[in-house]
């Protein structure tokens, strides 16, 4: 399941039915309503913070909280589930600022826990996209697992798409899903929508105007530490669709930051600070993500979850202060934070989030002052090498990114 893909050069073509495109809220209601009509019980979204014993710091996918049930444990709500889960991924953090990458995002999900299988899931997926969201059938393309040295191709998914008249491309690594090196896994089928302003052509592997919107994972195996696969006690289906990506396609927008969900942020930030496009997107994403993380009870720290939060806030401050050191997060309207917390159903007071942000700003400003004094010493007057970086980090707590901020173009000694 994917949070983002390469930016595409043209705004997506919106769905064909007359009338305005759906809002983010309407898209959620259409998705969950479709599956509720088909016997799926809604599951509440979990916190970003994983419970004790989970090796992952944050919830990274819609299926993450359901892992025990996908492995065979009975779920108290039954075998058919639907939900919306907030997720956080740091693997793409350096990409944030482009048109599609987000740190905190929402995943729409449906699950079959030992109930229906591949063909039914794909048929419903096609029905919802075409009938529920109004996407023209000719704008759809699918990819399917083509096999590897352990398993053959996913012929069941291939047959389902052929029955629906959807073209298919075989891939290998791109159509095998797992939540880590061990645990439940299986072949997946990804559904793409054509977003170009000319008739569809090519394949998802050859043209990035095919944008992935939905992933259907056939949970069939458990991968052990030695890499071997054993069948799960029950076969399941786990689907995940990035909400912001879906709405971007449905609203015919060029970027996830152009959808209605981000409108308050993208309208307000230019009134506060003069930023270019990538800077505006980074600041909007990181501040919004920081608010959600704080709303789930995390505070800045030097390691773990707190370090992720600290890094988000300091990346914002680095961006703001690069052009104007007088800028402050105290200018951020509380209404933006309140709207974000309300969207995610979090009870944290907006003023408390603001207090955490301002406290971290004060800490970072103090560290910058200390760093400038250290780097003004004769020892660091020339280019820095790896020994210098290690010394500044281990002895004085200055991370490399902060040193590079204070010395924009360090040159390693030969």
Question: What does this entry look like structurally?
Answer:
By secondary structure, the chain is of the alpha+beta class. The protein has two domains: 24-255, BirA Bifunctional Protein, domain 2, CATH 3.30.930.10; 260-376, no CATH class. 37% of the residues lie in helices and 18% in strands. The chain has twelve helices and nine strands. The protein has helices at 24-36, 67-70, 118-132, 155-164, 243-250, 263-272, 277-295, 304-323, 334-343, 350-375, 386-396, 400-406, and strands at 41-43, 80-88, 104-113, 140-145, 168-171, 176-178, 183-194, 210-223, 229-242. Strands 1, 2, 3, 4, 5, 6, 7, 8 and 9 form a nine-stranded mixed β-sheet that branches. Helix 6 (263-272) packs across helix 7, helix 7 packs antiparallel against helix 8 and helix 7 packs across helix 9 (334-343). It is globular. Residues 1-10 and 410-414 have low confidence and may be disordered.
Topology summary:
Layout: H1 24-36, E1 41-43, H2 67-70, E2 80-88, E3 104-113, H3 118-132, E4 140-145, H4 155-164, E5 168-171, E6 176-178, E7 183-194, E8 210-223, E9 229-242, H5 243-250, H6 263-272, H7 277-295, H8 304-323, H9 334-343, H10 350-375, H11 386-396, H12 400-406
Parallel strand pairs: 1-2, 4-5
Antiparallel strand pairs: 2-3, 3-9, 4-7, 6-7, 7-8, 8-9
Helix pairs in contact: 3-4, 6-7, 7-8, 7-9, 7-10, 8-10, 9-10
């Amino acid at each position: 399941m994917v949070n983002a893909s390469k930016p595409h050069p043209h705004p997506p073509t919106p769905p064909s039915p007359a009338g305005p495109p759906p809002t983010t809220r309407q898209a959620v209601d259409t998705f969950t309503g479709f599956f509720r009509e088909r016997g799926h019980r809604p599951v509440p979204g979990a916190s970003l913070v994983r419970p004790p014993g989970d090796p992952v710091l944050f919830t990274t996918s819609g299926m993450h909280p359901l892992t025990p049930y996908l492995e065979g444990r009975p779920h108290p709500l039954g075998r058919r589930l639907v939900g919306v889960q907030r997720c956080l991924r740091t693997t793409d953090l350096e990409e944030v600022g482009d048109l599609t990458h987000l740190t905190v995002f929402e995943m729409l999900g449906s699950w079959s826990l030992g109930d229906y299988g591949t063909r039914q899931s794909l048929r419903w997926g096609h029905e919802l996209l075409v009938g529920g969201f109004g996407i023209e059938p000719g704008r759809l393309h699918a990819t399917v697992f083509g096999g590897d040295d352990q398993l053959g191709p996913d012929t069941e998914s291939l047959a389902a798409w052929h029955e629906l008249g959807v073209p298919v491309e075989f891939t290998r690594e791109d159509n095998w899903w797992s939540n880590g090196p061990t645990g439940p896994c299986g072949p997946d089928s990804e559904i793409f929508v054509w977003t170009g302003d000319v008739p569809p052509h090519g394949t998802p592997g050859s043209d990035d105007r095919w944008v992935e919107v939905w992933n259907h994972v056939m949970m069939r195996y458990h991968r052990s530490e030695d890499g071997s696969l054993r069948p799960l006690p029950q076969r399941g289906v786990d689907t995940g669709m990035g909400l912001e990506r879906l709405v971007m396609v449905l609203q015919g927008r060029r970027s996830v930051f152009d959808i209605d969900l981000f409108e308050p942020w993208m309208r307000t930030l230019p009134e506060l600070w003069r930023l270019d496009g990538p800077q505006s997107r980074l600041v909007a994403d990181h501040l919004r993500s920081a608010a959600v993380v704080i709303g789930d009870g995390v505070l800045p720290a030097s390691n773990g979850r707190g370090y992720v939060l600290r890094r988000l806030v300091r990346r914002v401050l680095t961006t703001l202060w690069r052009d104007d050191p007088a800028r402050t997060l105290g200018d951020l309207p509380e209404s933006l934070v309140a709207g974000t917390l309300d969207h995610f159903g979090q009870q944290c007071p907006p003023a408390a989030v603001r207090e955490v942000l301002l406290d971290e700003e004060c800490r970072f400003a103090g560290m910058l002052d200390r760093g400038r004094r250290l780097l003004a010493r004769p020892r660091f007057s020339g280019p820095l090498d790896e020994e210098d970086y290690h010394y500044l980090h281990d002895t004085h707590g200055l991370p490399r990114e902060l040193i590079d901020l204070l010395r924009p173009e360090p040159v390693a000694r030969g």
